[in-house]
Amino acid sequence: MIKTFLDKNNIDAHFDESMKKHTTFKVGGNAMCIAMPDSIEKTAKLIEFLKNNNIESYYLGNGSNVIFNDNGFSGVIVKSLNLNNINIDGTIVKVGAGMLMTSLSKAVREKGLSGLEFCYGIPGNVGGGIFMNAGAYGGEISNKLLSVEYIDENGVLKTINKAECEFSYRHSIFMKNKWFIVSATFDLEEKDSAEMFAFMEDIMQRRKDKQPLDKPSAGSSFKRPVGYFAAALIDECGLKGLTVGGAQVSEKHAGFIVNIGGATCADIVALADKVRQIVLEQRGVVLEKEMIIV
Asked: Whose CA is closest to 279, among 224, 220, 219, 239?
């Protein structure tokens, strides 16, 4: 039934697909199906179909902050990869949720538009960035946002403005609703392209110097506790290099859990829980996982 629907609507899909191919941590079992619609209309039809037929679903961006269970996923993963169009009109930029944040920051910089330089080097895409209000180096994706287009749980296309998105640190309204983000509109500022390029290259160099970019991970593993830095707390507890199976607290940056080879979802969860327990015991601070376990 699912394959018939996808074929009829010309929606790209893969069946019995390993989630290792679709997450930056390179872990997880197989998904029954991953569907990647290339238009808003196809996405809306798919979401409506899945709901009407009581088929379990999960919405995925670039998989840079998500870890799938070792047993896999028995439903349909709807991935925004192919919704990657961009339209620039003066300082107004409308972009599809599937575009990578790094690609977006480069595209607008080339047009002399500022406000998204901090996105350079962030491995997620625009939809995922809005979902978790991604940020780095003093910026957050919500800062220059005007509105977000999404498809609700009934397959209806709607628009929500920034004020209604309930943005806060690593949080948005999309975290508590089954809504599929399809596009975002930003209002940027004109600025010298060469100046922006220099800043973006500096950001990238700092990432390379400080972060374990050579190993699979989901970026920062823990949210920043109020009044503290997660990496500093973990480092102070002497946990760099702590290993469970193929998962390890990075020896380069304590805030990252990395896959040193053959890690499972169970390894990562066990290591994260162990880190949280030790930090709580030694420092009295509760760390909250930033990565999402499906």
From this structure: 239
How far apart (Å, rounded) are the C-alpha atoms in residues 271 and 280? 14
First to last CA, the chain: 25
Two tokens, residue 164: 């209604």
Q: Distance (Å, rounded) from C-alpha 32 to C-alpha 70?
A: 13
* CATH numbers and ranges of domains, the chain: 2-79 (3.30.43.10), 86-195 (3.30.465.10), 213-293 (3.90.78.10)
pLDDT computed for residue 236 by the predictor: 96
Amino acid at 95: V
Mean pLDDT per segment of 10 residues, for the chain of length 294 residues? 93 96 95 96 96 95 93 95 96 97 95 94 93 88 96 95 93 94 97 91 92 92 92 96 97 96 96 97 94 89
User: Strand order in 73-79's β-sheet?
Assistant: 12-18, 30-36, 73-79, 57-60
Structure-derived torsion over alpha carbons of residues 213, 219, 222, 225, reported in degrees to the nearest 10: 90
Distance CA 232, CA 229 (A): 5
* Numbers of helices and strands, H then E, in the chain: 7, 19
Question: Encoding tokens for residue 17?
Answer: 């697909």
Three-class secondary structure of residue 271 per DSSP: helix
Dist CA 109 CA 190 (whole Å): 9
Amino acid identity of residue 190, one-letter, is: E
Between CA 129 and CA 149 the distance in angstroms is 14
pLDDT of residue 219: 87
Strand partners, 159: 149
Query: From CA 76, how far away is CA 132, in angstroms rounded?
Result: 22
Alpha-carbon distance 175 to 100, whole Å?
Answer: 20
CB atoms within 10 A of CB 270: 14
Q: Which amino acids are annotated catalytic? A: 170, 220, 290
